[in-house]
Specification:
Strand order of the largest sheet: 1-2
Distance between the termini: 51 Å
Strand content: under 5%
Shape: elongated
Radius of gyration: 22 Å
Largest sheet: 2 strands, antiparallel
Number of domains: 2
Structural class: mainly alpha
Length: 170
C-alpha cells in the first residue's frame, strides 16, 4: 500500500475492529500496516470481506496472507505439471525447457525426471507424496526468503552449509 492509502486502510481496519468488538491500540495498527504494506488497498478491501465471512474473531494479518496462499499452485497441481513436463530425451528422461523452476527443483529433489519417467504406475502415489512434500517446503522457503532476505537469503544458508562442510572434512 502507499502512504496515501493509510486513511482508507485505517477506516477498513477500524471497521473490522468495531464488527469484531476488539479495541485497536496504535502499536497494533502499526503492526497491521507493516504486515500488509505489500498489499494494494483494493486487494485489502476485497480480502476483508472474505476474511470476515470466515472468522468469528478478530482476524490477524495471517488470515489475510492465508487468502493469498489459496491462489498459489497446490502441491498436487504441481505434481500434474511435473508429470506433464517429463519427456524422453536422447538417452534418458528430461524436463521440458518450459518447466517452472520450482517444479523442476522439486523433481530434482526426488531424484530427477528419470525417477518419474521410469516409475511403475503402482508406485506413483508414493513418488507423488515425496514430490509434494518437497514442493511444499520449497514453496514456503521461497516465500520466506523473499519476505525477509536479510534473515533467510539463500546466500546466508549457503555460508552455513559451507562452514558445516569444512567442519566435517577436517
Amino acid at each position: 500500500m502507499l502512504v496515501t492509502d493509510k486513511p482508507q486502510f485505517l477506516k477498513v481496519l477500524n471497521g473490522i475492529a468495531v464488527i469484531k468488538r476488539t479495541p485497536l491500540v496504535p502499536e497494533a495498527i502499526e503492526l497491521w500496516w507493516g504486515c500488509l504494506a505489500d498489499w494494494s488497498i483494493e486487494d485489502f478491501k476485497a480480502a476483508t470481506i472474505a476474511v470476515l465471512k470466515r472468522t468469528a474473531y478478530m482476524p490477524t494479518p495471517k488470515d489475510f496472507e492465508d487468502l493469498r496462499k489459496a491462489g498459489r499452485e497446490t502441491p498436487g497441481e504441481a505434481w500434474i505439471t511435473a508429470r506433464a513436463h517429463v519427456k524422453w530425451g536422447l538417452h534418458a528422461f528430461t524436463l521440458r525447457d518450459d518447466c517452472p523452476p520450482l517444479v523442476a527443483r522439486a523433481v530434482r529433489a526426488i531424484g530427477g525426471p528419470n525417477v518419474i519417467g521410469m516409475c511403475d504406475e503402482d508406485k506413483l502415489p508414493f513418488l507423488e507424496r515425496r514430490f509434494t512434500e518437497h514442493f511444499e517446503s520449497m514453496q514456503d522457503s521461497e516465500e520466506v526468503r523473499a519476505a525477509v532476505p536479510q534473515i533467510a537469503a539463500p546466500e546466508r544458508l549457503r555460508l552455513k552449509l559451507d562452514a558445516a562442510k569444512k567442519l566435517v572434512t577436517r
